[in-house]
Specification:
2 domains; Aspartate Aminotransferase, domain 1; Aspartate Aminotransferase, domain 2; 4-stranded mixed beta sheet; 14 helices; alpha/beta; single chain
């Protein structure tokens, strides 16, 4: 096995795709410490700067001091506390849903919930956007489901596929995201809901990168849209902590408690994590000024890059790709920016399709116009 692993790593390296772990620490002001250097951070998902917010730290400490450092068991054994139930009720209220369930991470939620849904009956048809997150593809694969893929954000194509396929299936599920993590573009959520209703399909929407940032009071692009059956979101991005949620009907959550292996067999989230989530849910609805500032920074970044002829795809959010194309060139550009004091991660296949390697630029609300202008100038110089 050792020789096989060595050969596989060598092949990964020869393709320019080998990755290594590098220690880093988030800092105030949209900065990060990495390799002993303080850099402007254009790579983290701490969009609202809550990862170091005093209230999240205080409440995490308070709840750990009160309830300990671990939950002790899975939720169906002894792992459900009053705090878990209270936080889930708070999430449901935040999302305008009947009920919600906590999960350890967004990956775990997506990878576990889809197999549970598809286990409800054999032959359920699954319609997926081609660019959904790897965790959603993994969930379909784990269930043995063959995806019927529609072109990215092409809802006309989705309607064509729904009209042509799956009418005799016991159910049809549409799987997509509200904000796509690599391109920073958004789905037409109201139209998705109308399409799902017209075709009697179940709609699953991943709101990981919208939660906290978009929609009224940061509640996501699903807010106020009826007909979305399941919303998944995370607390590890704009919400500044860790963990994930699924929100939907009471029936849905009851079913998942009984059928979702990732929920049933996982130890419950610990008190400190719950405390940080609880604090974030208190803070985020009142952060309209930070959200507006973040959106303005993203507009400024896109305009600056496009003025230099750099492709930013269809970005409309705090995530702005600078499409490079070649993986080696993207890595070289990332290194050149690091030398100038800026962290801009290069994203390569298989995370993105071949020929679309890029800098994935993620903005943080603590940054300012001067930071964005400096980034645009540096990219232009190094391009």
């Amino acid at each position: 096995m050792k020789s096989l692993l060595t050969a596989a790593l060598r092949d990964i390296g020869e393709r320019g795709h080998r990755r290594v772990l590098t220690a880093a620490t988030l800092l105030p002001g949209g900065r990060i410490r990495r390799d002993g250097r303080d850099l402007l951070d254009f790579s983290s998902n701490d969009y609202l700067g809550l990862a170091r917010h005093p209230l999240l730290i205080e409440r995490a400490r308070e709840w750990a001091s009160r309830d300990g450092t671990g939950a002790g068991a899975s939720r169906l054994v002894t792992g459900t506390s009053d705090a878990h139930l209270a936080v889930e009720a708070k999430i449901a209220a935040f999302k305008g849903a009947e009920a919600a369930l906590l999960f350890a991470s967004g990956w775990q939620a997506n990878a576990a919930v889809l197999p549970a849904l598809l286990a409800a009956a054999p032959g359920i048809a699954v319609f997926t956007d081609r660019l959904i997150h790897a965790s959603l593809h993994h969930g379909c694969a784990a269930a043995g489901a063959r995806q019927i893929r529609f072109r990215h954000n092409d809802l006309d194509h989705l309607e064509e596929l729904l009209a042509a396929r799956g009418a005799d299936a016991p159910a049809r599920i549409i799987v997509t995201e509200s904000v796509f993590s690599m391109d920073g573009d958004v789905a037409d959520v109201p139209r998705l809901a109308r399409i799902a209703k017209a075709h009697d399909a179940f709609l699953l929407l991943d709101e990981a990168h919208a939660t906290g940032v978009l929609g009224p009071r940061g509640t996501g692009l699903s807010a106020g849209v009826s007909g979305i059956d399941l919303v998944m979101g995370t607390f590890s991005k704009a919400m500044g902590g860790f963990g994930a949620y699924v929100a939907g009907s009471a029936l849905l959550c009851d079913y998942l408690v009984n059928a979702c292996g990732g929920f049933i067999f996982s130890t419950a989230p610990p008190p400190a994590v719950l405390g940080a989530i609880d604090a974030a849910l208190d803070l985020v609805p009142g952060m309209d000024a930070e959200r507006a500032h973040l959106a303005a920074l993203a507009d400024r970044l896109r305009a600056g890059l496009r003025a230099r002829g750099i492709d930013t795809a269809a970005s409309a959010t705090q995530i702005v790709p600078a499409i490079v194309g070649d993986a080696g060139r993207a890595m070289a550009l990332s290194r050149a920016l690091a030398e100038r004091g800026m962290l801009a991660a290069a994203i390569r296949p298989p995370t993105v399709p071949p020929g679309t390697s890029r800098l994935r630029l993620a903005l943080r609300a603590a940054q300012g116009k001067a930071d964005v202008d400096a980034l645009v100038a540096a990219i232009g110089d190094c391009w």
